[in-house]
TrEMBL record, chains A, B:
Entry's family note: Belongs to the FAD-binding oxidoreductase/transferase type 4 family.
Purpose of the protein: Catalyzes the oxidation of D-2-hydroxyglutarate (D-2-HG) to alpha-ketoglutarate. Also catalyzes the oxidation of other D-2-hydroxyacids, such as D-malate (D-MAL) and D-lactate (D-LAC). Exhibits high activities towards D-2-HG and D-MAL but a very weak activity towards D-LAC.
A GO-annotated cellular component: mitochondrion
Chief location category: mitochondrion
Signal peptide residues on this chain, from the entry's feature table: none
Protein's name in the database: D-2-hydroxyglutarate dehydrogenase, mitochondrial
Coiled coil: none
Native organism: Astyanax mexicanus (Blind cave fish)
Chemical reaction(s) catalysed: (R)-malate + A = oxaloacetate + AH2
EC number: 1.1.99.39
Region feature (Disordered): 36-60
SUPFAM superfamilies listed in its UniProt record: FAD-binding/transporter-associated domain-like, FAD-linked oxidases, C-terminal domain
Length: 520, 520
C-alpha cells in the first residue's frame, strides 16, 4: 500500500521512460512497436537503455479476459487506475502499458495462468512488492502483470530448526514480525521491507544489511516452489539443511528475476533473535585506516559483527546541508557504522569496548560514539541510511551499485572525482565494506549528457578491470541487461541463453529483462 | 597418498562390485557390456544397485593414447598397478576397468582432453581425492580417469576479505594449513581432509563438521572455473561476495558430481581462525530432552556454537566393546558433543558455563564434561568420530545417511529397532543434530538378504514420508542414483535430465552417476 500511495501522489508530476505499443486485435499477432522514449527524472540507472522492439507476443483479447475472469473472479483487474500503479516501477523510471493485472491466491492458479499464457503466446511480467531498482518488476509493453500480493500465507514454522515456509507474496516486514514473536529473525533485512515480497527477494537474490553475518539467500533459502513457463509446478520446497540428491534446481530461480519461472513458495532458514545489539559510529582519517580497522574488527568482534558500513565526508556534507543532520563525532574523511548482534549483552559490550580501545589507541580511528538504546541506534543508522535521500536534494543523480575487491572499493570514487573535476557537483561513495559493495553517486545541477559520457562506459570498464560486478545486489532487469558483458564472459552469457531457451522456449516470462538483447 | 597406500594394502583380500567390458578396437564403437556383479564386503550403501549396460562410448585406441601422451608427456598413465588404485573407490565397493589415467596440470589441458573426448565419444570419469562414499569418483567400465591431483596450486589469497582462490586439486588439509598460517580457516572440515580435493568437495557439495556454523558451500563458494563436456572453459571464478549480473551458473556445478562439467578452480570465502575452542560431552535421558537442550543451546551459545552432534547408547556400547574406549561420563541413553568457537576465551567459557548450569539444573542433561585443551578436546571428539570404526568391528554393516526434520531425526532409529527386532545385531543412530542429518547403521553377524529386505525400501519410504533426503551429504553417485525419486519429484528429475542433455549432449561426463537409469 505504501508504494501505491507514493506512486499515486507523484503521478501527476513525473515523467517516465515510456514504452507504448500499437494494438493488434487477435491471436497470433506481430505487433509493430512504437517506442516513445522520454528521459526520466528520478533514481536508478540514468544510462539510456532503450527497450528492444516489442516481441511478437499475442495481445490480450476479450476471450482471454473471459478465461482469466472465470479463473480469478474479482481478482482479474482491468481498472486503469489500479493498473497505473502496477505499470510503473518504484523509482518511476520505467512504465509499461499492461491492461491486465492478475492476483492469484494459489500455486494452482499461477499454474493455470502460465499454462494458458504459454499456449496462447501471451507475455507475463511477474510482480512482487515492485520495489526493484532496475526496471525488472514492471511490464515494458503490454505484458500481463502477475502479482503475488494475495499469496501471503505463512505455511509452516519449525521452532526447533528455525525453518519458515511461506507463500511468495508475504511481505518481508510481516515475516520479520511473525518471527520476532517467536524469538527468531529473517536472515535478510532491506530498506524496502515494508513493501517487498519474499518471492521478489528470492527472485532478485536480495542482499541487504544482514548479508555480512548470515550470508546470501543461496545458502539460507532451503527450498522453493516454482511454476515454470508452461505451467508445470516444480516442487523443490525442501525444509532440509542438507540434501544432496541430484542437481540443486532451486538455485536456477534465485536471482533470475522471474525470467525462468515464477516463485510461489519459499522455505528459509532463520537465525535466533539476538539478545543484544550495539552500534558504533566512528571516524577515520584515510580509507587505508578504515580497511585496517575492518581487519581488526573482524578479529576482535568476530562472531558478533553484523554490519560494517561506510560513508565518506562528502556524504556527511550532504546530510548536514540538505537534511540538517548533525555529525555526532569530529569531522573526518571517512565514517564507519559498525553493528554487533549477540547472545550476551555484557560480552558484546566488552568486546566492542576492547576493539574501540585498540583502534583508537593506534589512531586508526580518530573519534567515535556508541549506542545501545534503540532510539540512539536508529539515529546513528540514519547517518548511513539517509544518504540516498540527501543525494536527491543535491541534484540530478547518476547512481552506480558495484562490487569490487574490498581493497579497491574506494579507488573508484577517487578516480572518478579526479576524472570529472568541476563537471560534477558531488562525487560520493558509501556502502557495505563487509560485502565489497560500493554505492557510487554523482550529482549535477541538471541532467548533463557530457557528464554522463565522462562517467560511462568508464565506470563499467573500471569495474570490469578489477573483476568487479556492475550490479552487486540490484540485478539487471530492463535497465542494465546490456551491461552484463562487463561482468560475465560471452561463454557464460551464451549458457544463460541456453538455460532460458530450455525453461521458457517461447520467452513469455518477464521478457526484455536480465539477458542482453543479443541473447533471446 | 594415504588412500593409495590403504587401497594397495587391502587389494589382495577384498572383493568388489566389478564391472568389466569386452573390448572393441576402433572408433566409433558399440561395445556390448559383460557385467559381472559380485557382492561387496565393506562400507557404503549395501543395497544392490547394478550398473546399467555399458553405453556405446568409444574405446581408447593407440591413436588416442598418442594424442594424450603428446598432450601430457609423463602424465598419461597406463601402468596397471597405478590404475588399480584409481579404478577402485575408497570403500572398495565399486571397481572399474579403466586403462588410462590422465593427470593434467592446467585448465587448458583439461579443456583439450575434454574437447578430444567429446569429439571421439570417449567417456570420462573425473577424480579428485577419490574419497567419495557412493561410487561417484571411479569409472564404472573403462571411462578415462581424469585426475585433478596435479592441479594443486593456490592462486590467490586476500587477507582482507578472506577469499582464497585455488586449483581444484588442492587437498583440503593443505588449504587448511595454508590458511591457518594466515589466521584463517576453511569454511568446511571433513574426516577425509587428508586426501580429499577441494574440487571434489565442491562437486559433491560436501557438508562436514562446520556446516552448522558457516553454512553450505552454496553460500561460501564465490566462484568456479569449469570445463564443459565439449572443452569450453566457463570462467565464473568471481571473488566477490555479491554479484547479481545474470544467472548464477556456478551453482549448477556444485553438487552435480562431475556430470555437468569438470571443476578446475575454486574461490571460497574463508572465516577468521577462532581464538578459543571448547568441547562439551553431555548425557541426556531421552531424545526429547536432547532436542530441548539443542534449543536452549542455540539461544545461550548463539553465535559461538560450531557443532551439535549426537550418538546413542548403542554407539557407546560399541565404542567400549570394540575399541575399549571409556565413557567419560555416567551411562546415558543419549550423548551430545557440543563445540564452541569464538574470539574471546573468557566469554566463551562463561557462556558455556551458564548454558551447562541451566541444562543441568533443569535435569535436561544428567551428566557432562568439558574440555578446553587440545588433547582432551580430541579425546572427546573421538567418541563421536570413531563410531564408524567401532561399527566395522561389529559385523556386516548396512549404512544410511539421511536428512530429516530435526524433531523426527531419532524416530527412524526407534522404528527400525522395533521393526527388525532380533534379526539385527545392532541398530544405532548418530550424526549432526544441528543439520538434521542422521547416520543410521544396522549390523548383522554376516550379510543377510532377509535383513536387507526388511530395511529397504522401508528406510527410503520412511524418509520420503517425512519429506527427508535419502542422501544428506554423500551424493548419489553410482550406488544411489536410482533412489533419487524418494527425495525428488518426477518433474524435478526430468528437468535435471534436460540440464544434463543441454550441457553434455553425448553424456561423456561421469556416465551412470547421479541421474537415474530412466533419465539419460
Amino acid at each position: 500500500m505504501a508504494v501505491f500511495e507514493r506512486l499515486t501522489r507523484l503521478k501527476s508530476t513525473s515523467r517516465f521512460l515510456r514504452y507504448t505499443t500499437s494494438l493488434c486485435p487477435a491471436h497470433p499477432c506481430t505487433a509493430t512497436a512504437r517506442i516513445q522514449q522520454r528521459r526520466v527524472h528520478g533514481g536508478g540507472s540514468e544510462t539510456p537503455s532503450a527497450a528492444p522492439p516489442r516481441r511478437p507476443f499475442s495481445q490480450v483479447t476479450p476471450a482471454d479476459l473471459d478465461f482469466f475472469t472465470r479463473l480469478l473472479p474479482g481478482r482479474t483487474i482491468t481498472d486503469p487506475d489500479v493498473l497505473e500503479s502496477s505499470n510503473v516501477d518504484w523509482l518511476k523510471s520505467v512504465k509499461g502499458s499492461s491492461e491486465v493485472l492478475l492476483r492469484p491466491k494459489t500455486t494452482e492458479e499461477v499454474s493455470q495462468i502460465l499454462r494458458y499464457c504459454n499456449e496462447w503466446n501471451l507475455a507475463v511480467s511477474p510482480q512482487g512488492g515492485n520495489t526493484g531498482l532496475v526496471g525488472g518488476s514492471v511490464p515494458v509493453f503490454d505484458e500481463i502483470i502477475l502479482s503475488t500480493a494475495l499469496m501471503n500465507q505463512v505455511l509452516t514454522f519449525d521452532s526447533i530448526s528455525g525453518i519458515l515456509t511461506c507463500q511468495a507474496g508475504c511481505v518481508l516486514e510481516n515475516l520479520s514480525q511473525y518471527l520476532e514473536e517467536r524469538d527468531f529473525i529473517m536472515p535478510l533485512d532491506l530498506g524496502a521491507k515494508g513493501s517487498c515480497h519474499i518471492g521478489g527477494n528470492v527472485s532478485t537474490n536480495a542482499g541487504g544489511l544482514r548479508l555480512l553475518r548470515y550470508g546470501s539467500l543461496r545458502g539460507t533459502v532451503l527450498g522453493l516452489e516454482v511454476v515454470l513457463a508452461d505451467g508445470r509446478v516444480l516442487d523443490c520446497l525442501s525444509t532440509l539443511r542438507k540434501d544432496n540428491t541430484g542437481y540443486d534446481l532451486k538455485q536456477l530461480f534465485i536471482g533470475s528475476e522471474g525470467t525462468l519461472g515464477v516463485v510461489t513458495a519459499v522455505s528459509i532458514l532463520c537465525p535466533r533473535k539476538p539478545k543484544s545489539v550495539n552500534v558504533a559510529f566512528l571516524g577515520c582519517s584515510s580509507f587505508e585506516n578504515l580497511l585496517e580497522t575492518f581487519q581488526i574488527c573482524r578479529g576482535m568482534l568476530g562472531e558478533i559483527l553484523s554490519a560494517f558500513e561506510f560513508l565518506d565526508a562528502s556524504c556527511m556534507s550532504l546530510l548536514e546541508e540538505h537534511l540538517k543532520l548533525t555529525n555526532p563525532i569530529t569531522e573526518s574523511p571517512f565514517y564507519i557504522v559498525i553493528e554487533t548482534a549477540g547472545s550476551t549483552p555484557a560480552h558484546d559490550e566488552e568486546k566492542l569496548h576492547n576493539f574501540l580501545d585498540t583502534v583508537m589507541a593506534s589512531a586508526l580511528v580518530i573519534d567515535g560514539t556508541v549506542a545501545t538504546e534503540e532510539t540512539k541506534i536508529k539515529a546513528l543508522w540514519s547517518m548511513r541510511e539517509r544518504v540516498t535521500e540527501a543525494l536527491r536534494h543535491d541534484g540530478y543523480t547518476y547512481k552506480y551499485d558495484v562490487s569490487l575487491p574490498v581493497e579497491k572499493i574506494y579507488d573508484l570514487v577517487t578516480d572518478m572525482r579526479k576524472r570529472l573535476g568541476y563537471r560534477a557537483k558531488s562525487v560520493v561513495g558509501y556502502g557495505h565494506v563487509g560485502d565489497g559493495n560500493l554505492h557510487l553517486n554523482i550529482t549535477s545541477p541538471m541532467k548533463d549528457p557530457a557528464l554522463l559520457a565522462a562517467i560511462e562506459p568508464y565506470v563499467y570498464e573500471w569495474t570490469s578491470g578489477c573483476q568487479g560486478s556492475v550490479s552487486a545486489e540490484h540485478g539487471l532487469g530492463l535497465k542494465k541487461r546490456n551491461y552484463i558483458y562487463y561482468s560475465k564472459s560471452p561463454e557464460a552469457v551464451t549458457l544463460m541463453g541456453d538455460i532460458k531457451a530450455m525453461l521458457d522456449p517461447k520467452g513469455i516470462l518477464n521478457p526484455y529483462k536480465t539477458l542482453p538483447d543479443s541473447v533471446r
